[in-house]
Design goal:
The complex is a heterodimer of chains A (312) and B (382). Chain A has two domains: 2-237, 3-Layer(aba) Sandwich (Rossmann fold), CATH 3.40.50.300; 249-306, CBS domain Like. Chain A is built from 14 helices and 13 strands. Chain A has helices at residues 40-45, 70-76, 92-96, 98-102, 107-120, 125-128, 138-149, 168-185, 196-202, 220-225, 230-236, 241-247, 271-281, 301-308; strands at residues 2-11, 14-24, 29-34, 55-60, 63-64, 77-81, 156-160, 188-193, 205-210, 213-218, 265-266, 285-289, 295-300. A six-stranded mixed sheet of chain A has the order 6-7-8-3-9-10. A four-stranded antiparallel sheet of chain A has the order 2-1-4-5. A three-stranded mixed sheet of chain A has the order 11-12-13. In chain B, 75% of the residues lie in helices and 3% in strands. Chain B is built from 15 helices and three strands. Chain B has a three-stranded antiparallel sheet. The longest helix of chain B is centred in the middle third of the chain and has 35 residues, at 168-202. Chain B is flat. The chains are: A alpha/beta (312), B mainly alpha (382). The interface between A and B is medium-sized, with 31 and 20 residues.
Amino acid sequence: MIELQHLTKRYGGTTVVDNVSLTVEARSIAVIVGTSGSGKTTLMRMVNRLVEPTSGRVLIDGVDTATIAPFELRRRIGYAIQNHGLFPHRTVAQNIATVPALLGWDSGAIAARVNELLELFGLDPAAFAKRYPHELSGGQQQRVGVARALAAKPNLLLMDEPFGALDPIVRTKAQEDLKAIQRTLGTTIILVTHDMEEAISLGDRIAVMDGGRLLQYASPNEILVRPATAFVDDLIGTGDRPFRLLSLTPLAEAVEAGPAEGEPMPGDRSLRDALAELLWSKRAALPVAGADGAVIGRVTLDGLLKRAARPA
Amino acid sequence: MQQRIDKLGVVIALTLAGAAFLPLATYRANRIAGGEGKSIAEALPAWAAVALALVLVAAALVALIRSSTGLRLGTSLAGIAALALAVGFSAIYLTPEGDRYARVAPGSGFWLALFGLAIMAADAMVRLRLGPTARIAGVLLFFGALGLLLVSGVWDGLSILKEYSGRADVFWREAGTHMTLAVGSLAAAVAVGLPLGIAADRVDRLRAPVLNVLNIVQTIPSIALFGILIAPLGWLAANVPGAAAIGIRGIGIAPAFVALFLYSLLPMVANTVVGLRGVAREAVEAARGMGMTNAQRLFKVELPLAAPLILTGIRIVLVQNIGLATIAALIGGGGFGVFVFQGIGQTATDLILLGAVPTVLLAFAAAVVLDAVVELTAKGAP
């Protein structure tokens, strides 16, 4: 569990982060979202002491981070940044091995960990371990950057706009992979982004920052349905709100009894996907398949429209 | 229409044609007498003259017509070898039997033909895009071939080697001094310049003053710098106990060493600063974020990434110092400059060449080898 308590950062007379408190549950993803200059990156950098708070403190599992030497603290916390930050003079394997090497793991354990991570991220060790970062595609570089951050098995991973430099298709794939890997490893993640769509799709909890202050810290559903201020409302974008709300619920949670024509859609897809499919194929209902592929019911256009409306 | 004539080849062919009408060798009755040019026909026995002429014509044709790069390189190297052998033979052929005063030196035709063939060879090597290790091997081969020519005695008749044979021990002593000056001042400049560059990169308020002072030092003419150093070093020698004992004096090797060191600092410091500033911000940020200490960040990330530029600084310094060290002879610092200034004093061209040619060859070798090393360290760069 990560507790941020009354964190404030001032540079001269300017307050960049203003008395922010929030708690991130273990094994969950917290997304800090805001415009540039909102203080979101500074807030995150105070967690691993890349920025020292002017006042306030950070507790990780009850331990005050100020009591741990910064470089030791950072070796325990994974760190992934925009544009991956890979070392251009080191191979993929050497890059991933950075923190384990700093921690003094023996070479056998490092090599095993590097192979394990490359496979986890869908990169064939035989093909990729010895390559240099500039020989990889943007998406591959980003995956190596995250693999490097996870190398020493940290319980906490900080990510600063990790998908910012990727094109939309690669970005969506990378986000899904991150969610899957987070579920497998149970790592706690604090992720900073300016993209509300990304925040809603990844976050268990979303912290909305503006002008150094925390405006709202709540679940995506809560943020969409009950935005705390007009600024949060703006950030969501009123045009997209119903669709974002639908995107939060998997089909399996909205099935109704009744017949439907056509190819069934897997139950782990979102209501938004189903709505798009219904609109595009001019149908009023479509069948939903369970995990085993058997049809478990249907979703209807009417049902979806009701769920997309502002809750009473 | 397909172009069949190589543009650079036209220049090379014209150069070779011009060289054929200029004297291959110069004959003088003694080392300071006026020279008398000897054409290819006059300087060589008939068979050798014809053979050399044929080689030059063949080289000109190969240069002129668009041909494969391998053929161009082979022909130009064969031409250079033929020229080197021919000028050696001409010395033996032109020197009267038992005449110890006569001097035969390469003539303007030789130098012009060598120039043309060297351009052809260099052009071919550039087109081959040789890798760094191949280029280092090329330099080693070149010096191997040169050593073979010198040992074989083919060139023993040439005036420059006659000058050498009379002062072989002095030559090697001055060669040692020259290298001590050039490499020693480089080592001192690296030892001081690298930390100074790192400090100037880290501390914003230090950067501009350091670079400005070194820039000013760089603009002082070398002879003036020697002069400026005489007084303080002389004072040191006279007043600091032990200073004179370790060789510090107002004239001699000490001021030359100090001057070369001062000239070396700017390229070292400037390249270190530029190299460190050029390290990708994300890489430095990632290094901090993953828990590297300041020293680990410097040695594991920043210096390796700045290495190509820092080595480029070392290359600039070494090539510059090998050349500048010749001036040291003016204030009694020794080095190859000794022969150059003696030669100027005696109007003995051959003696000047004995100092100048090794200097040029050393600088050339240092440049090629260090360029290759810079390329080898730039691994992983896009």
